[in-house]
């Protein structure tokens, strides 16, 4: 592919050079006009020299001086003969080279009588050779330019060949393959190379995450399936589970857990492969709706003045905040609050705070790992699939933001979502009317 493209570029460069030369030549010829051709210039020179000798014909000394002057000024050899053919004036032989083609012109008196003949021998300027010299010069220049175009074509094709090989390797499954981005790839080619490398990195990371997720899901599904099989045997034998629990109730609990796992996986797949449906959302409407659905008590939400509108997918943001509230109520203290505020960089921070024991030292980052269901060291893992906070971080990153966890100085934990602001003027939501909130709330509610 690369060699074929190289040959095409090389050939088209040659065609472009030839067409350019023909265009320039025809333009110069058209602009010069009929009065500026080589024959016209020759006639002018002959008339000029003949008239000069006609004026000085009667004075031999002046005639000889004029012949010398013409020879030196025009760079030619001038010889003047009378009607009998005898030389009556002659310029010295020009030192620029041997005599070439000769022009002859009759010298006539004012009444038209022929006095003699002037012979002009071309020496330094071989007028008849001008077209050939021009042609040779153009051909030489064209060959030089064509040779340079070979280098240019090669330089253009080389990164394309590299990108083609990288694309083929990626298509064959080698996701670690990257294109070489060096100083020879400036401009658009460099941007294309960077885009392909970034795409390959994202694909490699996504495939790796999907494989890890599939392995983890397979492991997580085996446990409830094994319990369901055991509980089914208990139900057939009419044996109750510990403390007199009905096996069917336990089977239902396991099915609910598996259903929750499948739901989280479907949400993760939607986030990975579907475009975000972003729109401006009121922070007050978003957090109040989330608090309502989580049955939080009144006064648990706060929007600081100057907080701008959110630019987010209402379905995914509702899911992320819901997962954070569920996690805070499960592991935190009895009081859970939601706070929205403006960040220094213009983005919006949505914080879920509780007054529990907080995170164990070094555990703040681990809470976002998939299938992590523990909290503090030595604590028994709670029931659940452990994908909620992992999905929260992915939702934040899909919006161009981030999610992080920390302990509050006054006690308890805080998980913060950093989300982009809508591209409109910042709103003082503390002074915003209820109409604005009511417009955004149905969108969130419908999306959920």
Give structural notes.
The protein has 448 residues and is an alpha+beta fold. It has 10 helices and 11 strands. The strands form 3 sheets. Strands 6-8-9-11-10 form a 5-stranded mixed β-sheet, with helices on one face. Strands 2-1-4-3 form a 4-stranded antiparallel β-sheet, covered by helices on one side. Strands 5-7 form a two-stranded antiparallel sheet. A hairpin with a 4-residue loop joins strand 1 (76-82) and strand 2 (87-90). The longest helix has 51 residues, at 187-237. The relative contact order is 0.07. Residues 124-128, 375-383 and 425-448 have low confidence and may be disordered.
Give the spatial strand order of the biggest sheet. 6-8-9-11-10
Share of residues in strands: 5-15%
CATH architecture of the largest domain: 2-Layer Sandwich
Alpha-beta content class:
alpha+beta
Order of helices and strands: HHHEEEEHHHEHEEHEEHEEH
**What is the typical, i.e. mean, pLDDT?**
76
CATH topology of the largest domain: Heat Shock Protein 90
Main CATH class of the largest domain: Alpha Beta
Rg, Cα atoms, Å: 46 Å
Please identify which CATH superfamily of the largest domain we are dealing with. Histidine kinase-like ATPase, C-terminal domain
How many domains make up the 3D coordinates? 3
First-residue to last-residue Cα separation: 51 Å
Characteristic terms for this protein:
disordered C terminus; 4-stranded antiparallel sheet; alpha+beta; 5-stranded mixed sheet; Helix Hairpins; 14% strand; 448 residues
Topology overview:
Blueprint: H1 2-32, H2 38-55, H3 60-74, E1 76-82, E2 87-90, E3 102-108, E4 114-122, H4 130-171, H5 187-237, H6 247-273, E5 279-281, H7 283-293, E6 301-303, E7 310-312, H8 314-331, E8 336-342, E9 348-354, H9 388-398, E10 402-407, E11 413-419, H10 434-447
Parallel strand pairs: 6-8
Antiparallel strand pairs: 1-2, 1-4, 3-4, 5-7, 8-9, 9-11, 10-11
Helix pairs in contact: 1-4, 4-5, 5-6, 6-9, 7-8, 7-10, 8-9, 8-10
């Amino acid at each position: 592919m690369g060699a074929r493209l190289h040959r095409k570029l090389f050939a088209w460069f040659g065609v472009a050079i030839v067409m350019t030369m023909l265009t320039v030549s025809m333009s110069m010829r058209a602009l010069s006009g009929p009065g500026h051709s080589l024959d016209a210039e020759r006639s002018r020179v002959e008339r000029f020299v003949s008239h000069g000798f006609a004026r000085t014909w009667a004075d031999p000394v002046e005639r000889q001086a004029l012949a010398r002057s013409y020879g030196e000024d025009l760079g030619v050899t001038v010889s003047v003969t009378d009607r009998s053919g005898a030389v009556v004036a002659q310029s010295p032989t020009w030192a620029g080279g041997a005599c070439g083609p000769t022009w002859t012109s009759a010298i006539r008196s004012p009444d038209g009588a022929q006095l003699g003949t002037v012979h002009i021998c071309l020496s330094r300027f071989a007028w008849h050779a001008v077209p050939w010299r021009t042609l040779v010069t153009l051909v030489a220049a064209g060959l030089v330019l064509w040779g340079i175009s070979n280098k240019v074509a090669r330089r253009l094709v080389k990164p394309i060949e590299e990108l083609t090989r990288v694309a083929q390797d990626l298509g064959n499954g080698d996701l670690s393959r990257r294109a070489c981005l060096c100083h020879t790839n400036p401009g658009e080619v460099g941007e294309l190379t960077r885009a392909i490398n970034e795409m390959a990195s994202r694909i490699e990371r996504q495939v790796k995450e999907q494989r890890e997720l599939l392995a983890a899901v397979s492991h997580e599904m085996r446990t409830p399936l094994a319990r369901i099989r055991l509980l089914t045997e208990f139900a057939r034998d009419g044996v109750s589970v510990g403390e007199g629990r009905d096996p069917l109730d336990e089977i239902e609990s396991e099915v609910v857990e598996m259903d929750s796992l499948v739901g989280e996986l479907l949400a993760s797949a939607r986030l990975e492969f579907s475009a975000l449906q972003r729109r401006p959302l009121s922070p007050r409407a978003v957090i109040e709706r989330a608090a309502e659905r989580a049955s939080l008590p009144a006064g648990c939400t706060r929007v600081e003045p100057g907080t701008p509108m959110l630019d987010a997918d209402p379905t995914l943001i509702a899911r992320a905040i819901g997962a954070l509230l569920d996690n805070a109520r499960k592991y935190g203290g009895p009081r859970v609050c939601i706070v929205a505020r403006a960040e220094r960089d213009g983005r919006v921070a949505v914080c879920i705070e509780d007054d529990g024991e907080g995170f164990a030292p070094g555990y703040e980052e681990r809470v976002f790992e998939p299938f992590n269901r523990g909290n503090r060291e030595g604590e028994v893992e709670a029931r659940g699939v452990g994908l909620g906070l992992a999905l929260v971080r992915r939702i934040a990153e899909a919006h161009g933001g981030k999610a992080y966890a920390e302990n509050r100085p006054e006690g308890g934990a805080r998980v913060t979502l950093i989300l982009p602001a809508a591209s409109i003027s910042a709103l003082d939501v503390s002074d915003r009317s209820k109409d604005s909130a009511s417009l955004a709330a149905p969108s969130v509610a419908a999306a959920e």
